[in-house]
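Researcher: Here's the sequence for the chain we discussed earlier.
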Amino acid sequence: MTELLDQPRDVTMRLRPHYDPEAFGRLSEEIARFLGTARFLVYMTVFVSVWVAWNAVAPIKFDPYPYIFLTLMLSLQASYAAPLILLAQNRQADRDRVQYEQDRTAVERNQAEIEYLTREIAALRIAIGETATRDYIRSEFQRLHEELSSGPNQ
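Model: Thanks. This is the structure I predict for it:
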């Protein structure tokens, strides 16, 4: 959004914070791509293993056996991951839809060009069919030559 320098700023109080939806969408796609990697699975496995090992053998346990805090953190992570993945999928679907429309337009244009070229080739074939070919002219000359050679008496 561009601000005009010759006009005063609009000073309105917003109850909701302003954010750039495009930047947020790009961030969500990056997070979703990371969540779908083996690296993320390894990091989560190491994190949970260290968490459980620490709380099993360390003298100071901050989350004893039922690991309720760990469960809460993993649930929180999953509750944020699911909408981010859905947002990334929606953005990909929008890009796919635009690409589909562009592809369809290109296919229609190509089809029109093919039909035009087909008509042109058909017109050329008809035109060639109506013109005398080299072989036809030779055969006619040969026939005339034979008529003239045989003489007027026959």
